[in-house]
Design goal:
The chain is α+β, with helices and mostly antiparallel strands. The protein folds into 2 domains: 41 residues; 178 residues, Cupredoxins -  blue copper proteins (Immunoglobulin-like, Sandwich), CATH 2.60.40. The protein is built from 2 helices and 17 strands. The chain has a 5-stranded mixed beta sheet with strand order 6-12-11-8-9, with no helix packed on it. A 4-stranded antiparallel beta sheet has the order 13-2-15-16, with no helix packed on it. The longest helix is centred in the N-terminal third of the chain and has 39 residues. Bound molecules: copper (II) ion. The site of copper (II) ion has 6 residues, from loops.
Length: 240
């Protein structure tokens, strides 16, 4: 090839490479700026759940529902979750998950468990087992799934299968924070295993357009805490 053409070819290649690099940089910059502005606009919603007597309610699930649900939020919320059986109890006793998530139920006890649910949102049974079952259970329908064990009547757990990716569970002080909510209007509701009446009646509205933080408080009417008396369990620490 004549030297002139080679030179032109080299120049053209160099130009193309530079253009590609510039385009790449611009795209990266746009992505970074976009992510930064989205993060800056996202809001935190602090929630406080109390009972009718004003006492903090632990293990309440608070769900925020908005019209615009980014696929990334769903992807981040959906996952492989774990509910242990420790000392013949479900740990945690209340587990909120995103619909489409699966839950593994490892048995950490020296006794066998037979975990089941008859709840419409998920009917299943794990045959009597020790250790970790081979397969997780897929929760593909929103709703509350009450867990039991055929061997230990007092074992009760709750999987709260949320249709929205924005949910949180309250701590011992009755509070929790829903983080990174995109700016929009939300219907926010609270649920608890002892909630009296329909969960939808707890709904409150939050407008997070132009707000970086907001707060809501819920007062729930709860049934008395009645639990099935435990029997001594071989290999458990409860009867020490
Ligand atoms: Cu059991």
């Amino acid at each position: 090839m004549p030297p002139l053409f080679t030179a032109i070819e080299r120049l053209t290649t160099a130009y193309a490479t530079a253009r590609l690099a510039a385009a790449g940089l611009l795209a990266l910059l746009a992505l970074t700026l976009g992510a930064a502005s989205t993060a800056a606009r996202a809001a935190d919603l602090r929630v406080l759940v109390k009972d009718a007597a004003g006492r903090p309610v632990e293990d309440a699930v608070v769900v925020a529902v908005g019209a615009n649900v980014p696929a990334a939020a769903v992807q981040a919320a959906r996952g492989n979750e774990i509910i242990d059986q420790i000392d013949a109890e479900f740990v945690p006793r209340v587990k909120p998950i995103m619909v489409g998530s699966s839950v593994m139920f490892p048995n950490k006890d020296n006794v066998r468990h037979q975990v089941y649910s008859f709840s419409p949102a998920k009917v299943f049974e794990l045959p009597l087992y020790a250790g970790t079952p081979a397969r997780p259970v897929l929760f593909d329908k929103a709703g509350v799934v009450v867990l039991g064990c055929n061997i230990h009547d007092w074992m009760v757990g709750y999987v709260y299968v949320s249709e929205s990716p924005w949910f949180v569970k309250t701590g011992a002080d009755g509070s929790a924070v829903l983080r990174g909510l995109p700016p929009q209007r939300y219907g926010v509701r609270a649920w608890h295993p002892r909630l009296q009446g329909d969960e939808s009646t707890t709904r409150e509205d939050a407008d997070l357009q132009g707000e970086s933080t907001a707060a809501l408080s819920f007062t729930l009417r709860l049934r008395p805490d009645v639990r099935i008396r435990r029997a001594p369990v071989a290999g458990s620490h409860s009867h020490y």
